[in-house]
Amino acid sequence: MSQDSTETERRKTGEPSYRLELHTNSYDIRVYAPYLVAEVIVPGPAEAASSAGFRLLAAYIFGANGGSQKIAMTAPVTQTPVTLPMTAPVTQSRADDGFRVHFSMPAGYTLSTLPLPNDPRVKLFEVPAQRVAVHRYSGRWTEQNYAEHLDELRASLSAAGLVPHGEPILARYDAPYVLPFLRRNEIWLTLA
Questions:
Q1: Which residue among 104, 116, 138, 152 sits deepest, i.e. has the most Cβ atoms within 10 Å of its Cβ?
Q2: DSSP of the chain, one letter per residue?
């Protein structure tokens, strides 16, 4: 089974391709094919990181790149917490916690055909195929809403005997002006 083409058509926004492995009342298990992303790592807190990351990546797809090419907007915009590693020299303190913010790139591009970003903070790479548990919810993009739904997903997976690994990924599919009750938000947890 594949993603709901009616919803994808309605949104007119490209999304990474996946195969639906399992659907339950509280989560889906999806197997994503490899896909390309543009990524920035920005300092937290989460809301500030989301805005800063979005601006940097939007500049890239709107033409701040080597060919001044416009690249179609896709969904979702994903955000993952990351602890930046300690850097040398040893006298420096550990870097602040930050977040990885991704834009998925439209199908049809390769790493060699995507225009190079003008901003060195924007990195391009391929996300390998992955199997993820996905919990979908609507509402505002608040830490509390995210935490409640992450707890719900973890409890459901634990009850099913599934063990996620890695950091959770927040996937947002809608623009900030979309009414909160209409927003499509997801939390992804990687599975073996």
A1: 104
A2: -B--HHHHHHHT-B---EEEEEE-SS-EEEEEPPEEEEEEEEESSHHHHHHHHHHHHHHHHTT-BTT------BS-EEEEEEEPPP-SSTTSPPPPEEEEEEEEPPTT--TTTSPPBSSTT-EEEEEPPEEEEEEEE-S---HHHHHHHHHHHHHHHHHTT---EEEEEEEE-S-TTS-GGG--EEEEEEE-
Instruction: Name the strands in the sheet holding 18-23, side by side, starting at the edge strand that comes first in the sequence.
Output: 18-23, 28-32, 130-137, 185-191, 165-172, 77-83, 97-104, 35-43, 123-127
Q: 33-77 pLDDT, tens per residue?
A: 999 999 999 887 888 888 899 999 999 999 999 989 999 988 899
Torsion on CA atoms 189, 129, 55, 139, rounded to nearest 10: -40
Could you tell me the two tokens for 177?
């002006």
Q: What does pTM read for this prediction?
A: 0.83
